[in-house]
Structure formats: C-alpha cells, structure tokens
Design brief:
Layout lengths: L2 H15 L6 H17 L4 H17 L8 H17 L13 E6 L6 H15 L4 E6 L4 H14 L3 E2 L7 H14 L4 E6 L7 H14 L3 E7 L3 H15 L3 E5 L8 H10 L3 E5 L7 E3 L2 H9 L1
Parallel strand pairs: 1-4, 1-5, 2-3, 2-4, 5-6, 6-7
Antiparallel strand pairs: 7-8
The protein binds guanosine-5'-diphosphate.
Guanosine-5'-diphosphate binds next to helix 5.
C-alpha cells in the first residue's frame, strides 16, 4: 500500500538522518521533499502546502535543530500530523436504531455493493447483528442480482422488489419488513452513476429524507485520487454523510484520497476495502495508516 509515497518520504528523511549537524537549510529541504512526495501521491496542493507549514511550525516549536536525533523527531512530527489529517480516533457506525438503518452512497463501480456485503458480514460475525441487505438500484437488474449473490455468500437475506421503480418505496418497505422479521440492521444499497448528476443526487437525497438513516456512508474508489475528493464533496454537500469508506486500497493506489478526504469533507474514514472477498474489510485507524505510510 502506498509504496511509492513511503519510498519518497523515506528519502526525504535521509537528508536529515545523513547529516551530523543539522541546519535549517536541511530541514527546509526535507520539508520540500515531503511536500513533493505528497503531491506525487495525488494530495491536493493546498493540503500538502498547509501540511508542511504545520510540520515546520511544530519542528521550530520543538527545537528540532538542537535535539540529538532530529531525523527521528521529524518523522514523529510528520506521523502525528498525518494522523491528525486523516482523522482522530477510529469511529464505528451508529447502531443505535431499531432497526439501525445504514444508507450507502457513491458512484457506480466504487464498490458499494461489495462493501454493503462486507459490512453486513462484519456486523453479523463480529457484532452479533442480524442485518438485512436492501437492493435499491432500479436501473440495473444486474445490480440486484449481484446483491443477491453477495447475500447468499454470507448468509444474509436480501430484500428487493424488481418490479418497483420507486427507490423510496422499496427502502421504506424493506424497513417495515425488517421490523416485522427481527432484523436489527438494514443496509440500503443504492443506484450509482458513472459521474455525479442531478438526477442521481435527487434520488438518493429523497431516499435519505424518507428513511432518515442512523448512518449514511459514502463509498469511494481510492484509485481515483483527487476525483475521489471532488466526488466526496459533491455527495457531502447533498447528503451531509457520516463517514467515508475507501475501497480498493489493495490496488496500486497512490494514497492521495486517504490523506486528503477527511480535511476536505470533515468526515471520518470509517472502513477500508482491501480486496474483492467479503472478509477484505478493515476498520480505519488513522495512526496505523500513518505508520504504514511512513514505512
Ligand atoms: P458498485 O457499482 O459501487 O456497487 O461497485 P461494486 O461493488 O460492483 O464493485 C465494483 C468492482 O470493484 C467489482 O469488480 C468489485 O469486485 C471490485 N471491488 C470492490 N471493492 C474492492 C476492493 O476493496 N478491492 C478490490 N481489489 N476490488 C474491489
């Protein structure tokens, strides 16, 4: 994960680690390299710039130049700032409802259906919940089938109404079904489009308003870099979602989305997807991710 970024940051710190006596020129050079590494990883320019400014201020505040191991101190400062940038402590999903309704949003292909299955499986096996999956994609019959396949794989019931073209009704009926059949979590998988458009936004906003979910999650493909951040912003403006799911972190992704998204939408990343299998889901811990990024 993020091998390229890890390599480049490692090289940046070499500048500091290699010198007996550290000068402010060395520190400035290191920060320049750190910034370049972030930009190469597809982190937005302003975020990268603000990041290195904060690191510099901290380095000055902690008298980096006079410490015995300035390289190590700089790594620690960068790690703390990265953790902060990606979010504070890990946050779970809100399961306080009866049933708890979780609405999934995101573009087509982002990994919504796969993640809906992963989350259902996680809640069933790790949290002892009885989830119901709901297929609300009224445009692609294949999407409904895909959710049924996923449901069968993990032994979770899937609610669908293939003839009904009203996603609000389907979602409401599913919640009624859940209430009368003892399901305590309802995961609503919605239709996605290839790009953000008004119709899709209106549709999901209507579903959101009608079912008032405890938790609205935005699913995004981490391979899409800065586009991931722009899409997140568009969805957040309409849905004011509660958390982000970053998928495909097992792929050849550069890391920009993971690093930038929290500071753009001010919502935590809650889970990551790390593969196509139902078990490939991890709770997102910013400090562990920062550790991995720094190698
Ligand atoms: P949706 O259109 O948003 O419902 O997206 P899908 O759930 O159908 O996922 C699109 C493709 O991405 C499928 O081929 C999934 O198997 C794949 N996929 C989803 N999540 C992950 C992940 O975390 N890692 C990898 N490698 N592939 C994923």
């Amino acid at each position: 994960m993020f091998d390229n970024l890890t390599d480049k940051l490692d090289k940046a710190f070499h500048i500091l680690k290699g010198h007996g006596k550290i000068t402010d020129v060395n520190v400035a050079d290191t920060l320049k390299e750190v910034r370049r590494a972030l930009l190469d990883a597809d982190v937005n320019f302003k975020i990268a710039k603000d990041f290195t400014t904060r690191v510099k201020e901290k380095a000055i505040g902690e008298n980096v130049l006079t410490t015995l191991q300035p390289g190590q101190l700089m790594v620690k400062i960068v790690k703390d700032e990265l953790t902060e940038l990606m979010g504070g402590d890990a946050e779970g999903v809100n399961l306080s409802g009866n049933p708890s309704v979780i609405l999934m949003s995101g573009l087509q292909g982002s990994g919504k259906t796969t993640f809906s299955g992963k989350l259902a499986n996680f809640l069933k096996t790790k949290k002892n919940k009885k989830p119901l999956l709901v297929a609300c994609d009224i445009y692609r019959p294949a999407a409904i089938n895909q959710l049924h396949v996923v449901g069968e794989q993990i032994g979770v019931e899937v609610y669908s109404e293939p003839e009904n073209k009203n996603p609000v009704e389907i979602a409401q009926n599913a919640i009624k079904h859940a209430k009368s059949n003892g399901f305590n979590v309802v995961i609503v998988d919605t239709a996605g489009r290839l790009a953000v458009d008004e119709e899709m936004m209106n549709e999901i906003a209507n579903v959101h308003k009608a079912i008032q979910p405890q938790e609205t999650l935005f699913v995004v493909d981490s391979m899409t870099g800065q586009d991931a951040v722009n899409t997140a912003k568009a969805f957040n403006d309409r849905l004011n979602f509660d958390g982000v799911i970053l998928t495909k972190l097992d792929g050849d992704t550069r890391g920009g989305a993971a690093i930038s998204i929290k500071s753009v939408v001010n919502k935590p990343i809650k889970f990551i997807g790390t593969g196509e299998k139902m078990e490939a889901i991890d709770v997102f811990y910013p400090s562990r991710m920062a550790d991995r990024i720094l190698g």
